[in-house]
Amino acid sequence: MFVKAAEAAEILPGGMKAVTLNGREVVLCNYGGAFYAVERACGHAKARLERGALTGWVLTCPLHFAQFDIRSGEALSGPAPKAPASKHPDPADPALKTASLKTWPVKTENGFIFIDLP
Ligand code: FES
Rounded distance, CA 18 to CA 54, Å? Predict the structure, then answer.
């Protein structure tokens, strides 16, 4: 069921806004005038992703810089290595595990953004 989430004019291209709907924390992203809805908590250590950076379809976490594709929620990369010694991190290291984000369908109607939440 689509739920009204925000006014489209509130989120400029390249911008993001966090909303809580039906108990779910969601970040709305505007890329080129199209809106996307992704889970608010980073798939690594739950940082709030609306405080990160949106470059094209890539959302970068503000805490350790994991990156996600806002179209699919796919985790494109995990957290950045901390020190030169970990330049080649072991991908099996549980501290680097990064889950992809949930995403939800979005539509705009009469200047408002709606998210299809189950
Ligand atoms: S919390 Fe997002 S990369 Fe660590």
Answer: 13
pTM of the model: 0.91
CATH architecture label of 2-82+92-116: 3-layer Sandwich (2.102)
Nearest CA residue ID for atom 1, ligand 1? 45
Mean pLDDT by 10 residues, the chain (118 residues): 96 97 96 96 97 97 97 94 64 84 98 95
Taking the C-alpha atoms of residue 48 and residue 9, their distance in angstroms, rounded to an integer, is: 22
Domain boundaries, the chain: 2-82+92-116
- Find out whether the beta carbon of 42 lies less than 6 Å from any atom of ligand 1: yes
**Distance of alpha carbon 19 from alpha carbon 12, whole angstroms:** 15
Compute the distance from residue 112 Cα to the ligand 1 centre, in Å: 30
Q: What distances in angstroms separate CA 8 from CA 58, 59, 108, 110, one per listed residue?
A: 20, 19, 7, 9
